[in-house]
Amino acid sequence: MGSFWAAFLVGGLICVVGQLLIDGTNMTPAHALSLLVVAGAVLDGLGLYEPLIQFAGAGATVPITSFGNALVHGALMEAKKHGLIGVLSGIFEITSAGISAAIIFGFLTAVIFKPKG
């Protein structure tokens, strides 16, 4: 279980990397986010993201890199149980709650506040 300082430092470092990618290169924010998702996926595939979560707690589970981690983690877990079809079902199973929450809260925000455009 990570401390508040570990969460702050790791989460902040992930955000700094994202900001440096946007400010220091000609990457768009979408490109930087995609790269961070892929980085989280690669780290999970190499078995390095779970120890990071154990060390930093929310500092590793809240940033966008955690989405890549969740995709690979779910795919690998279900692939062990169900083979190739488990890869797809695992991706959807483990990420569906977060995606559903984003859609619902985005809709509610649009209903409550007047969207521009």
TrEMBL record:
<keyword id="KW-0812">Transmembrane</keyword>
<keyword id="KW-0472">Membrane</keyword>
<dbReference type="Pfam" id="PF03862">
    <property type="entry name" value="SpoVAC_SpoVAEB"/>
</dbReference>
<dbReference type="InterPro" id="IPR014204">
    <property type="entry name" value="Spore_V_AE"/>
</dbReference>
<keyword id="KW-1133">Transmembrane helix</keyword>
<feature type="transmembrane region" description="Helical">
    <location>
        <begin position="84"/>
        <end position="113"/>
    </location>
</feature>
<feature type="transmembrane region" description="Helical">
    <location>
        <begin position="29"/>
        <end position="49"/>
    </location>
</feature>
<feature type="transmembrane region" description="Helical">
    <location>
        <begin position="55"/>
        <end position="72"/>
    </location>
</feature>
<dbReference type="InterPro" id="IPR005562">
    <property type="entry name" value="SpoVA"/>
</dbReference>
<protein>
    <submittedName>
        <fullName>Stage V sporulation protein AE</fullName>
    </submittedName>
</protein>
<feature type="transmembrane region" description="Helical">
    <location>
        <begin position="6"/>
        <end position="22"/>
    </location>
</feature>
